[in-house]
Amino acid sequence: MTTDVRTIAWTGDALRLLDQTVLPARVEYLEVRDVGALVDAIRRLVVRGAPALGVAGAFGVAIAVRQAVREGWDDAERDAAIARVREARPTAVNLAAGVDRVLPRVPEGAAAVAAEAQAVLDEDVRANRAIGAHGADWLAARCPGRPLRLLTHCNAGALATAGWGTALGVVRELHARDRVELVYADETRPLLQGARLTAWELRESGIPCLVQADAAAPSTIMRGLVDAAVIGADRIAANGDTANKVGSLGVALACAAAGIPLLVAAPWSTIDRATRSGGDIPIEERAAEEILAFGGTRTVPEGVAAFNPAFDVTPARLVTALATETGVLEVSAGAVPGSRPQVGEPL
Ligand code: MRU
Prior knowledge:
By secondary structure, the protein is α/β, with parallel strands linked by helices. The chain contains ten helices and 16 strands.
C-alpha cells in the first residue's frame, strides 16, 4: 500500500491494531493491553482475516501473561484468559494456531512469548510475498496473454494479514508484472469487507477496481467478464474443502460453471489437517443485527429474525488450485494439502 498503515504491531507493552471497523472513513489505531479488550476487538472485527487473527492470538498470549503478573492471577486464571483469546472466533484456524504456537514459551514470561509472536508476524510477511509470487506465476501460466480481469471476495489483503495479503498479494504481484486489467471486488455483505477494505487497499495501490454487489458475482463470471477468481481462506480441511467468507461458494460454483480458475491463496497455517473435511469446520454465526439493519437503520420488518453465518465451505472439487508459501497445489485435480513440505522440497 502507498499509505503508511500497519494492520497489527507490538509496541513492547501493547498490541497496536488498525481499527478496521471505521475504515475507509477514518484511519485510527487501538492499543490493546488486556485480554478483555483483545477479545472484544477480535469479535467486533477491529482485527480480522485469518493470518492477522493468528498474529493477534499469538500476541494475545503475551498480553495475558503480562496481565496475570499485573493483576496477580494464578496459572489457572491466566490459562482461562488465554483460552478466551483462542476461542474468540471459531472459524479461522489461524487464531487457535497462533495461540498454540507460543504456548510453550509461557513459562519463560511475556517477553519470550512476545518474541515468538513476533516470529509468527515476520513469517506471515514472508509467506505473503511467497504466496503472491507462486500464485501469480500459476495464474500467469494458466491465463497467458493480456492483462487479467480478476474477481475477489471479502478482504484477503494487507488488512487481513501482517504483510501485503494473500489473495491481494497475488493481485499485487500480477499488477507489478502489468498483468492486471481490473479487479471486481464483491462488496461482502453484511459487514462490507470488500467495499470498505479491499476497495480501499486497491485504490491505495493504484490497482483498477470496481465494487459490485455480492449477488452480481456469479453473473459477472458467467457473462465472461472475469478471467479468474482469487480468494483467501479461513480454514482448509485435510481434504482441501475451504471455508471462507460467506458468498465464496457462489463465486466457486460460478467459476466451475464458466470454466475459469478459482485460486485460493493461503499460508500453510490456514490448513488444518486435524479437520478431515468441510463439514467438520465450525462456522461462526454472528449477531442477527448485522443483517436486520443497514447503517444503523432497521431494514427488516419488526418481528422477523435473521440467519447470519459468516462463512461458507467450498468443496475441494471446486477449488482449482491453492497457492501457499511453498508453491501451488492443484486441488480439484486431486492434490490435497498433506504434510507441509520443507523449503526446496517439491510439493
Ligand atoms: O470475518 P472476516 O472479515 O475475518 O473474514 C475474513 C475472510 O473471510 C478472509 O477472506 C480470510 O480470512 C482470508 S484473509 C487472508
